[in-house]
Amino acid sequence: MKASKFPLALAACALLSACGGGGGSSSGTSGGTIGGTPTPTPTSTTSACSLSNRQQFAREVIDEWYLFPDLVDTSVRASNYDSVQDYIDALVAPARAQSKDRYFTYMTSIEEENAYYNSGSTAGFGIRLGYGTDSVFVIEAFEDAPALAVGMDRGVEILAVGNTEGTLRNVSDIVAAEGWAGFSDALGSSDVGVTRSFRLRDTDGTTRVVTISKEDYALDPVSDRYGAKVINDNGINVGYVNLRTFIDTADPDLRAAFADFRAQGIDKVIVDLRYNGGGLVRIAELMGDLMGRDKVGQVFSRTTLRDSKSEYNERYLFASQPQSITPMKIAFIGRGGTASASELIINSMIPYLGNDMALVGTNTYGKPVGQYGFDNEDCDDRMRVVTFRTENADGNADYFTGLASSVPVTCRADDDIFTQLGDPDEASIAGALDFLAGRSCTAISGGQTTQSVSGQRRLLMPTRPSTAQREVPGLF
User: Fold this and answer.
1) pLDDT per residue over 280-304, tens digit each?
2) Quick check: pTM over 0.90?
3) In contact, 20 and 181? CB cutoff 8 Å
4) 3-state SS of the chain: helix, strand, coil percent to 5?
């Protein structure tokens, strides 16, 4: 519901976000939320959007709703900080020191966030980038966006960038002088009309220069090119679905994919979440339903708030869906960018599948907590604050270092960015097929991982990401 003037009011959607929010982290990701929308305690303050009033709004939300009230630095003085986000970061620093809030609590724009979750609307080139020591590659390109239209697709290397073709700077020079934050800045703001020139090396080794402008486009959560398909593996049909992000428009795409799997009698599935930073838990719950035809009425997940808000604790039960299947085995592809709502799905299936499910790739991000949104509508402020933890039917909710130590079977696999997603020869998909077929694999080492893409490549994140960049790590 909407806020009236300045009182705290929950946003229409809540999230299980894992990204470094507005706090300045470059290594985060994001996701969605479970449960209803409790009514926060009204407060009587002015609606003026001064820094002090916006800071007060943030403090009141944290004082009433923060999941870890004992991990708030109450000695912090708002007057010592020049921005709302810096003040928020200081308040929750004790939780961050314990890896329980890695910049998951932040202030964002109501308008921007609603546009993204409702339709995937964002502005940019429409590419996901991964970087190494001094090289950067396109690891995914989104349909109906400017980059793909000029052939910037998976596996293409960016050699140089500039405002114009005449001002191109080599990536290595930018990084040497300014680090990867400097390269991110060189790509420009997320505004329509921002134009950049790129020198590219295509997968066949040829180089070329292109100039493109950022445009508004709707990010398709399930790609029309490779997002859902049936793979024939030595005579056995395997369902493959690649979910990029948990937004409302994923609903019909997921239903269509699983309806096709059901019609073909498929009971082995690959769920590719390798770059999925999360989003709306409603979509995570739907995905659970679509893989839970035989589990209707059983616990998918539980949501637990702080003791003073325990009246809002909830559980979600698998629900019947006309498109649902009963998978005998599931291979989840995940990496360091797999977080939040993505981890929720994987964790929730463990009690039911056990050794008949596997995590393929690397360890995941590690985010078993989520956020509600609180609106200060007059200032276009939405406060996303960690308010709940999620657990599976067995009570597991403590995977802050990733899910590799929780999933009974893991299979280490590379992310072959020179082979298209959805291709059975791509390294992680080949590893998933090996598991489903009963072939051997090497286990993933436990412990916290980075957002590794392949080898030393990581997903590129700006210092202060937009809503879309929080939910789609590496997006520009």
Assistant:
1) 989 999 999 999 999 999 999 999 9
2) no
3) no
4) 30, 25, 45
